[in-house]
Amino acid sequence: MEDKTAREYTNGEITVIWKQHKCIHSAVCVKRLPSVFNPAHRPWVVIEGSDTESIRETVEQCPSGALTYRMNDEAAQQENKTPSLHHTQIKVVPNGPLLINGPAEIIDQHGNKETKTTIFALCRCGASHNRPYCDGTHNFIGFKD
Questions:
Q1: For residue 77, what is the enclosing H or E element?
Q2: Exposed site from 22, 65, 136, 140, fewest CB < 10 Å?
Q3: Are residues 77 and 16 in the same domain?
Q4: pTM of the model
Q5: 26-49 residue pLDDT tens
Q6: How many separate domains does the chain show?
Q7: Do 89 and 100 meet the contact criterion of CB atoms below 8 Å apart?
Q8: Residue 136: which region, alpha, beta or left (left: phi > 0; alpha: psi -120 to 50)?
Q9: How many whole angstroms separate alpha carbon 63 and alpha carbon 122?
């Protein structure tokens, strides 16, 4: 059984939430901000490694939703709930998922709705255990397209 617990890291201004079971190991966080996200260290998130704005910008690029955040200041939380007004971009990753960047509403097979305002990845191979989201299974089954 996979661990579905979330771990939280805070610097007082921002709290980063990591849900390991959602991580597809795209390493976007590690490449963008290695001073905070370093899988070779324990804990792998060192929230003091950068400023709040850089952390927020990096977490918003997580394609799986494994990393999310909340602003600890109530006014900042309200500001971040305002959806961005830019268009939605869909990018086909060769031999990988669809990366969706922009506002989107996901409705699952049971009618449950989830609003996304940042980048996320949808499964193209059909083998994800977290459908409709990508969980990186395409890397293990040899998906090519």
A1: helix 74-81
A2: 140
A3: yes
A4: 0.65
A5: 899 999 999 999 999 999 999 999
A6: 2
A7: yes
A8: left
A9: 9
